[in-house]
Write a structure and sequence with these properties.
Shape: globular
Radius of gyration: 18 Å
Low-confidence stretches: none
Structural class: alpha/beta
Distance between the termini: 31 Å
Number of helices: 8
Strand order of the largest sheet: 6-7-8-3-9-10
Helix content: 25-40%
Mean pLDDT: 91
CATH superfamily of the largest domain: P-loop containing nucleotide triphosphate hydrolases
CATH architecture of the largest domain: 3-Layer(aba) Sandwich
CATH class of the largest domain: Alpha Beta
Number of strands: 10
Length: 233
């Protein structure tokens, strides 16, 4: 579903990503980990077609970037650091607005299902400005899924959430692991990242420094590896 070969991203003389090679198959949930400044957000923005690579080949759901960016965007749901919601609209009104933007068939049915899925049925008519950060994140997940994307990209979804809100969001994210979508999530929360994912990719200094499958993802061992690879960054 996602194929990356020789990916390099430079900002002037600064090299943010250095020769990344990896794939994410349909049905996989991959956690992208690494210290601040390692290149995680840069990588997700490139995968989301919001930034162009300097070098390398990227294919998203069969569309090669950048030439096939328009086709790829129809298959991508991207949750950035900003929830991209309208505070004066209700949860339902926000989803209805974005459904029109995405030209979603059967929008009302999708909206009803997604509001239930993210646990906001009782607040569907409330203005989003009254929502907690955790509730806004869950509604943003619903927004991301409105057009039924085959690739879901999540940039630090747990940032700023208290433990209870993090638990609720984790339950929502587990439902994305449906055997069909490819999900890539960047996170600093090693425990949650390991618990949710089939595979972990560790980026350090712009390089893919370590990868491990689920059966290798013992939290204690991974923390030791993380500290060794990142040098305590």
């Amino acid at each position: 579903m996602i194929h990356v070969t020789g990916l390099v991203k430079q900002f002037g003389p600064f090299v943010a990503l250095r020769n990344l090679d990896f794939t994410v198959e349909a049905g996989e949930f991959v956690s992208l980990m690494g210290p601040n400044g390692a290149g995680k957000t840069t990588l997700l923005r490139i995968l989301a077609t919001l930034s162009r690579p300097t070098h390398g080949t990227i294919s998203i759901a069969g569309h090669t970037l950048p030439k096939g960016a328009d086709g790829a965007r129809r298959q991508i749901g991207f949750l950035s650091h900003q929830p991209l919601l309208y505070g004066e609209l209700s949860a339902e009104e926000n989803l209805r607005f974005f459904a029109r933007m995405y030209d979603v068939n059967g929008a009302e049915r999708h909206i009803d299902a997604l509001i239930d899925q993210v646990g906001l049925a009782e607040r569907r008519h409330d203005r989003v400005r009254t929502f907690s950060r955790g509730m806004q994140q869950r509604l943003s997940i619903a927004r991301v899924l409105l057009h039924d994307p085959r690739v879901v990209l999540l940039d630090e979804p747990f940032t700023g959430l208290d433990p209870d809100a993090s638990d609720r969001l984790a339950n929502t994210l587990r439902r994305l692991h449906d055997g069909q979508r490819a999900v890539v999530m960047s996170t600093h929360d090693l425990d949650r990242g390991l618990a949710l994912s089939d595979r972990a990719l560790l980026i350090a200094r712009g390089r893919l420094a370590y990868t491990a499958n689920r059966d290798e993802l013992a939290a204690s061992n991974f923390r030791e590896t993380y500290s060794r690879v990142t040098g305590g960054e």
